Amino acid sequence: MPPRDFPLEPFWMPFTANRQFKAAPRILVSAQDMHYTAEDGRRILDGTAGLWCVNAGHCRPRIVQAIQRQAETLDYSPLFQMGHPGEFRAAGLIAELAPDGLDRVFFANSGSEAVDTALKIVLAYQRARGEGHRNVLIGRERGYHGVGFGGISVGGIPANRKAFGSLLPRVDHLPHTHNLERNAFSRGQPEWGAHLAEDLETRIIALHDASNIAAVIVEPVAGSTGVLVPPKGYLERLRAICDKYGLLLIFDEVITGFGRTGRAFAAETLGVVPDLITFAKGVTNATVPLAGVIAHRKIYDTIVEQAPPDTVELFHGYTYSGHPLATAAAEATLALYHEEKLFDRAHTMAARFEQAVHSLKGLPHVIDVRNFGLMAGIELEPAPGKPGTRAFQAFLRCFEKGILVRVTGDIIALSPPLIISETQIDELVGTLGAVLREL
Ligand SMILES: Cc1ncc(COP(=O)(O)O)c(C=O)c1O
Known about the structure:
This protein has a seven-stranded mixed sheet, with helices on both faces. The protein has helices at residues 18-23, 49-52, 61-73, 85-97, 111-128, 149-154, 158-161, 180-183, 199-208, 234-245, 266-270, 297-306, 324-339, 342-358, 389-400, 422-438; strands at 28-32, 35-38, 43-46, 102-108, 136-140, 171-174, 213-218, 248-252, 276-279, 291-296, 366-372, 375-380, 403-404, 406-408, 411-414. The chain is α/β, with parallel strands linked by helices. It is 38% helix and 16% strand. The protein folds into two domains: 18-56 and 341-438, Aspartate Aminotransferase, domain 1 (Alpha-Beta Complex); 64-339, Type I PLP-dependent aspartate aminotransferase-like (Major domain) (Aspartate Aminotransferase, domain 2, 3-Layer(aba) Sandwich), CATH 3.40.640. It is built from 16 helices and 15 strands. It binds pyridoxal-5'-phosphate. Residues 110-112, 115, 144-146, 219, 223-224, 252, 254-255, 280 line the site of pyridoxal-5'-phosphate.
C-alpha cells in the first residue's frame, strides 16, 4: 500500500467514531460501476450504493461527461432573480416522474435542506390559505429526516436529538411500525400494523386539534433506522386521515426516490400519493449534491397567488438551489435511468434479492430479515450489554472480505446500485452469510 500523503486528524468525520476510524482507517480511492477500490488496491462490492444514492453505479461516463461539459460552459449563475436552462429542464424531468398533480419543484442541496424546505412550504401554504394557526408538524418515531433543526425535530432517532436542546416547538410523533413479535421475517409489506396510523386521529388530532396541525411527514419506507417497511394498508390510512382533517402529507423519498423500490417514487410503488415529496441522493446518482421538494400544484398556486404581483412569493432559497453542475448531473442521470430502464430492472431484481436476503434466516444472531424493492434490513440480536457492537463487527469483517454494507445499531442494511447482477447479489449475500456464521 502506498504511504498516505494526508493527515487523518484535521478532518472531523460525520456520523463516524472518529477515534476508532483514525486508529484503523478504511479509505476508498476510486470506483467504477458496482465496485469501490480501497487504498490497498482491493475491490469492494458496493452493497449500499454509497449511502443509498449511487443508483446507476459508479462513475458512469455519460454523467461524468455532462458535468465536465457544464463546468466548461456555465460554472455558476446567480439563482435568485436569474435562471439557467438546466434548472428548468431538470425540474421538468423530475415533475414528469412524480405522481400526477405534483409538478412544482424547488431545489436544495441535501436531503436535510429538502426536509427543512418542505416544512417551511407547508407552513407558508397553511398561512397563505388563511389557516396560519395550523403550525404543528407531525413526524414519526424512528423517522430520519436529516440533521437540520427541522429534520431532527420531526425525526424520531433519539441519538440525533438528545444533544441539541429544545428543537422546534409544536411537533409530535406517530408511533413507529416496527414489531418483531408480529412481523419478523416478513417479505415485502408486513401484514400487521395498519391500525398504527390511527394514532394520528385518536391521540394526536384529539390532543392538538386538527385545526392546529399543518402536516405529517414520514418516509414511505423508513431507511436509515434500519429499513422498516410500511404495514399493508398503513399509508392508505394515514392518507385518509390527512384528507379527512385537511392535513398535508409529506413523503420523504430521499432514499426511496429514483428507483430504489422499483418505480420512480415509492408513492407509485405503494399506490399512495402525498402532497409533497422530498428527494435528494439518486437524482444525480450522487455525483453532485442536489435535492429538493416536489409540491402539488395547488400548494405552489396558493403561495404564489396570495403574494402581491411582482414580489417574491416564498422567502426561501439557497445560493446553490439548482447549481448548474448539479442540474446537468440530474439531466444526465435521469436520461441514463430511462435508457437503461433501471427502475424496471430494480423491480425485476427485487424478487431475486428478496429470495437471497431471506436465505440468511436461521444464521446465528439473525432475529429478522425484511425487504422492499432493492432495500433490505437484517436485524441481529444485540450482544448482551453492548448494543450495536455485533453489527459493527459484521460491517468490519464484510469490508475485510470485500463487500460494503451499512449498519445502524444492530441492523445491517443493504441497498445496492440498481445495476447489480444476480451473481453479485449472490456474492453480496453469500459473503454476509459467511461473516454472520463466523461472528
Ligand atoms: C429519508 C431521509 N431524509 C433526509 C436525509 C438527509 O439527507 P442529507 O444527508 O443529504 O442531508 C436522509 C439521508 O439519508 C434520508 O434518508
